[in-house]
Inverse folding.
């Protein structure tokens, strides 16, 4: 796949200063996020649900119970998968120019049900390792019954847009000169808290390194 | 409006143990979030875009430039607005039972363009005060030209669902007894960084309390 994103009318970013056109930027946003919002159309109306995901090359995978109605609405149909990372709140000198610093990726694709057992296993591994790195080796792997109860959808990243806003507010000159209001950025950061061991663990169970030292 | 959410087929939560049915729970999730994902249907396909929002009573407001195509696709049409708060990653003894702790709210409504000047101003105030509390009084208010360039949509919260997952992993008994894997929750927290003043501010400008002491 080309290292550059080739915008279609659907994936063209309006404010071009915020658009990123490298596939590497797309991968960076997808890899930094934990939760995506998956949009499907049900009876002509949009439905947007949060989901975790994983990436293998140019494909994003999501999963759900085989009984999930949203999954049935997505399989074989057009979907939109969006990942947004909020980096800061932008305080401007006017309320009009208030903004947010963020990175977002928007994928447009037909969701392909994954039926090949090898691809399905690789997709689930990518998903688990994206959300909880180290868990695929540490925890018990999926049984045949568990695999049968899990549906996986593949979402191709060919048609995608990436937007990034960063930096200070962009105010009108008159407001800057007036100097009556503060302006700047309040960064938003996400961090891990102290691991909370399950009460059913043996008392001597230590928090393993892949959880304790998660970056 | 009733203090209880009345699920429609669309807003019925499948895993009922995770469903919340109080309007107060809906408001709590909406008030705790900063970014929503708005789903619209464009040419039969879903489009999901991140946006900030504000709430006044039982109405959520979003805004955009009057020139934004996504806004034109939403105005007067069915939309889905989803707010998700990630609270933790759930490490289970099997990869199958890995999960996430989260709170989410999903609204289904027809997006109503706000044309009344008073409602529009109140909506923008709610939006600014939700994302950047204190800014409406501190910064310059919107000019007539800025108001004309801003479109506001109202999204009613009547048809809504709220889901909450919290607590430890739910593992199979055999995996708990085997005791071969760690299990627990890694909390995810969002916090503010140090305010970054705009370089064009007078050097003596102090960070105001509504930014410095933001809770």
């Amino acid at each position: 796949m080309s290292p550059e994103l080739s915008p279609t009318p659907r994936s063209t970013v309006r404010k071009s200063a915020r658009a990123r056109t490298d596939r590497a930027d797309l991968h960076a946003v997808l890899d930094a996020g934990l939760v995506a919002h998956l949009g499907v159309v049900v009876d002509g109306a949009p439905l947007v649900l949060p989901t975790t995901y994983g990436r293998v090359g140019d494909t994003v995978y999501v999963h759900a119970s085989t009984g999930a109605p949203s999954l049935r609405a997505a399989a074989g149909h057009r979907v939109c998968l969006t990942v947004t990372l909020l980096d800061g709140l932008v305080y401007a000198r006017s309320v009009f120019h208030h903004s947010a610093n963020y990175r977002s990726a928007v994928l447009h694709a037909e969701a392909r049900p994954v039926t090949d057992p090898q691809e399905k296993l690789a997709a689930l591994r990518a998903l688990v390792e994206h959300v909880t790195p180290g868990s695929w080796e540490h925890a018990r792997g999926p049984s045949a019954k568990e695999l049968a109860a899990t549906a996986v959808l593949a979402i191709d990243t060919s048609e995608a847009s990436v937007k990034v806003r960063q930096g200070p507010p962009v105010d009108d000159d008159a407001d800057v000169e007036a100097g009556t209001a503060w302006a700047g950025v309040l960064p938003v950061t996400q961090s891990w808290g102290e691991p909370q061991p399950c009460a059913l663990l043996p008392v001597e169970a230590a928090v393993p390194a892949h959880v304790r030292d998660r970056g």
Summary: The helical segments of chain B are 23-32, 69-74, 117-131, 135-138, 144-148, 173-178, 209-212. The radius of gyration of chain B is 21 Å.
